[in-house]
Design goal:
binds zinc ion, 60s Ribosomal Protein L30, Chain: A, 10 strands, globular, disordered N terminus, 5-stranded mixed sheet, single chain, 3 domains, 16 helices, about 45% helix, alpha+beta
């Protein structure tokens, strides 16, 4: 069409009557072109594509402005991209920016799960400087960076003196990372040690923070796999009773989702906890289809052992004691420490017993004969 118009222009130069025709044609052409542009803009994704790619480029540039080059040797990016409502539209552009800097999926990224009503955020951590740039974006009407801050989150530095601890406590109170200070500090520092197991990182994606609770789940999961190997035909059914952060590890690692009946969650009273030795963690039912057996393995996990060994002091703020506990639990050599994981009981059971354990009005420990039903209160 453009080609035709140019030709018309050349032929009609100097011919008055025909010039009017050209102007008319040009006018019609302009209207058509305008309509075309508007109609393209109305196609979902098409117009957004341009500004989305701009937004992800802006995010990376904003981080680089404060941290220097974002490269594979020094950087960890933590983000909830994909979880907030319709944030998936930025995924392709995000990865395009990510891979254009030679970053690696397993070395430089943790994509955490979050609720749909969370903001879309990015934390760029540079392990050499200890600096972290936290960025939130908004994209409802206009796509833009809505919040940005850079803080030094090196754990050694922050925890060194009473003054440095107080200074970080103050920043936590002011929610410098909009409430994600603990998650970003612990994950980044643990990653910087170079000893954060990638399979544990995958559990942190589901759990979206790094705490001693999720670490205990990782220890328990490994204990189960070592003692009751998850070979072909074997499956686990978990009774997370009492439940804590550990249970998200089992969901991720064994696909024991509640929807598929893999995990049953409930809690215990203080008296029940006491009657079970003070630190029950849950019941792991091992079903071996090939052997035709079913075993209920009842395990305990003792955080007193962690606290006694990880260098935690009574007056440490939570972010210090929890991170020190995480560090201790990250070291596989500590997993065999006497009393950390305890076997409360192992019982052969049948499908009927398993079904009874799942009933809403039954306490699975009572069904197994480990608690009296009168001990409930
Ligand atoms: Zn947790």
């Amino acid at each position: 069409m453009r080609h035709d118009l140019i030709n018309y222009g050349k032929i009609m130069i100097g011919e008055g009557v025909m010039n009017t025709k050209i102007i008319k044609n040009k006018f019609i052409y302009l209207i058509f072109l305008t309509a075309l542009i508007f109609s393209l803009g109305a196609v979902p994704g098409m117009a957004a594509e341009g500004c989305n790619s701009n937004l992800m480029a802006q995010v990376f540039s904003a981080a680089e402005a404060d941290l220097g080059a974002v490269g594979p040797q020094n950087t960890l990016i933590i983000t909830d991209i994909g979880s907030p409502a319709e944030s998936y539209v930025f995924l392709d552009d995000f990865y395009s920016e990510f891979y254009s800097r030679d970053l690696l999926y397993t070395k430089n990224l943790l994509t955490v799960q979050n609720s749909r009503n969370n903001p879309l955020w990015f934390a760029f951590f540079n392990k050499c400087s200890g600096k972290c740039t936290y960025i939130e974006v908004s994209y409802e009407n206009e796509s833009k960076i809505s919040y940005k801050i850079t803080e030094n989150i090196n754990f050694g530095k922050l925890s060194k003196t009473n003054e440095s601890r107080a200074a970080w406590n103050e920043k936590v109170n002011n929610s410098v990372f909009n409430g994600r200070e603990f998650a970003i500090l612990t994950i980044s520092n643990a990653w910087a040690t170079g000893k954060l197991d990638y399979e544990l990182m995958q559990c942190l994606e589901v759990h979206n923070h790094f705490c001693p609770g999720v670490s205990s789940g990782y220890v328990l999961a490994n204990w189960m796999e070592e003692n009751y190997p998850l070979k072909e035909g074997v499956s686990y059914t978990v009774f997370s009773c009492p439940n804590w952060c550990k249970d998200d590890v089992f969901v991720k690692r064994w696909d024991t989702t509640p929807g598929k009946g893999g995990i049953w969650v409930s809690t215990l009273t203080d008296n029940e906890t006491e009657a079970l030795g003070g630190s029950p963690a849950g019941i792991f039912v091992v079903t071996d289809k090939n052997a035709g057996t079913m075993k209920a393995v009842v395990l305990g996990f003792d955080f007193d052992i962690v606290n006694a060994n990880s260098g935690v002091k009574a007056d440490d703020p939570g972010w210090v004691s929890k991170y020190l506990a995480d560090l201790w639990l990250m070291n596989k050599k500590n997993w065999d420490t006497q009393g950390l994981v305890s076997v409360i009981s192992v019982k052969d059971i049948d499908a009927d017993t398993l079904n009874k354990m799942k009933q809403a009005d039954n306490n699975p420990y009572v069904i197994l004969g480990l608690l009296n039903s009168t001990e409930n209160n």
